[in-house]
Amino acid sequence: MDKNKPLFKIVIFIIVVIVMGLFLKSYLSDGKEYSVDTSYESTEGALSSDREQCMVDISGEVNNPGVYSVKMGIIVDQAIMAAGGYTQSADIEAINRAERVYDGMKIVVPKADDDTYMDIYKGILNN
Fold it and tell me: 60 forms bridges with which residues in the sheet?
């Protein structure tokens, strides 16, 4: 009997755990059945028609830096014109003026004599 005592305790423990699990399951369920709608409806078309505008943060060497609501899909150059255009010290060759804007985009126009941009650019090219 002493050899079977640990096995007996394990079996009793497993039975108690199963009974408690069944009790909790019946206690927690309220007897109601719920259905989940798994049908998929594309919202991409609805979002694109609702989102004809996007927000763009324009800073650096522009006349009126700030956050602007612009038409989705315009190019960076057009967005900068919405911010009053470039200052005389702007380095317009340092940015891609033909890139399409997207919601949440940050556009920074550097100064023409600012070497910070060139150091970053050279670092990217060297890596």
Answer: 109
pLDDT single digits (tens) 76-122: 999 999 999 999 999 999 899 999 999 999 999 999 886 665 566 55
Which stretches of the chain are DSSP H helices?
5-28, 44-50, 76-82, 115-126
Residue whose C-alpha is closest to residue 69's, from 86, 85, 51, 90 = 51
Q: Give the start-to-end residue ranges of the domains of the chain.
A: 1-30, 51-126
> Three-class SS of residue 86?
strand
- 51-126 maps to CATH 3.10.20: yes
3-state DSSP assignment of residue 92? helix
Q: Are 90 and 62 in contact (CB under 8 A)?
A: yes
Q: What's at 53, amino acid-wise?
A: Q
The first and second tokens of residue 35, run together, are 């259905």
Handedness of CA 75, 101, 57, 127 (dihedral sign): negative
